[in-house]
Give the backbone structure.
Amino acid sequence: MTNTLFPVFLKTETAHFLIVGGGNVGLEKTETLLRQNPEIRITVVATYFHPKLVEIGNKHQNITFYERPFEEIDLLNKDFVIITTDKPEVNLAVRELAKSKGIKVNAADQPALCDFYLGSIVNKGSLKIAISTNGKSPVLAKRMREYFTEVIPDNIEDSLTILNDFRSKHKGNFSQKLADLNKLTEGFQKSTETKKYKRLAFTLATSFLMFFIGYGCSTLVSLSDIQNGLSQVPNEFYYMLLIGFVAQLIDGAVGLGYGVTCATSMMILGVKLPAISGGIHTAEMFSSAISGFSHYKFGNVNKKLLFWLASFGVIGAVLGALFLVYLGNEYEKLAYLILSAYTFVIGIRLIVIAFKKFQFKKKIKFLGALGFTGGFMDAFGGGGWGPIVTSTLLAKGRKSKYVVGTVSLAEFFVTLAASIVFFTSLGVSHWYIVLGLILGGVIASPIAVKLAGKLPLKAALLFVSFLVIVFSVRVFLKIV
């Protein structure tokens, strides 16, 4: 038998952990422990402390720091030791001393020195799943954690509460109680309703597309116009095809940046400002519909947060779109200056996001204002909902899956509202922009899926921010 591990869930209220080493690995282990219990007692001994670790320590009175080499006295009254230094001789010496005192040890990336492993952990309310690969592949354990985090709904706590109440009040014997509980939990199996929500999202998006085409054909474009148009496709269509392709690749690798990448690229080509935002939002509406409703089904959506973001986001998007239609026609040069400055700021914000690390949960104020600002700037600038709203929520320490799910579904309503305003104001005169972006994104989607998670997040964000900043500066210099 090669796997002799016995999983145990430890109550950490009375445990005292000693971490030897204060670099990147020490920071990671500290954050891992705090995620399970923010009040857990930790002592960190090191000759160097990561700045982020010091920042965390200043916020937690239950963390003690000693800036010096490890000493045997550090093991006094400690229950567990985690060794994170990059010096094998130090790691071995600490491990032998701890073992002589009966203290269990974990040594990062050194399974032979470990008495226990810190597995990947899935947290869903009172449900906790620990995943271990017996020290062979932490990366695979991380991927399994991401999978279970996605498929297990966040509202599982409601089900656990109901089951606990049922078990407490059940008057039957053990066999009867077990049989009834098994019957109750049959519904926890994966439901086929996910496909229904995907079909619903697809139907909504397709209906809008058909309405878009039908309206244009019936009121503005005759059959002969369509035939002539197909034989004389504007060159801009092919530019939009390329822009949509590249933007989708970036969005697939990073998870954001589609709007600002398209907007800055199209500004350089001299596309009219209302057509820029209108084309982007119409094209982006389809992907946000499918992803948003999929997140809803998987329980990754906070309904209260969705209400505030979506309702105020729609108001902001309508006003932003109307403002752009008026300003873009009457004061085109001024609008270009405002947009180039806006995309430049978004580029800087992406750099800030790239260097952000773990954040502890903070209270979110003025959710309506956040949704309104994100919707207005997204409609006015052709992008920015993700960099503004998602980054703000993540900076407040909210779980990424929860944030992405809620923001994605809210984005569908925001893009739909903006698209309707642009559509009714501009008609189908910018059809080649919409079609080019959609087709380019469709072609890039399979490649973008493979890129997801392959490119380091920091490198990808810095790459996008570099492109956005350079393009914004070029637009500004071109106008001035």
Observations:
- The mean pLDDT is 75.
- Strands lie at 16-20, 41-46, 63-67, 80-83, 104-107, 120-124, 127-131.
- The chain is about 65% helix and 5% strand.
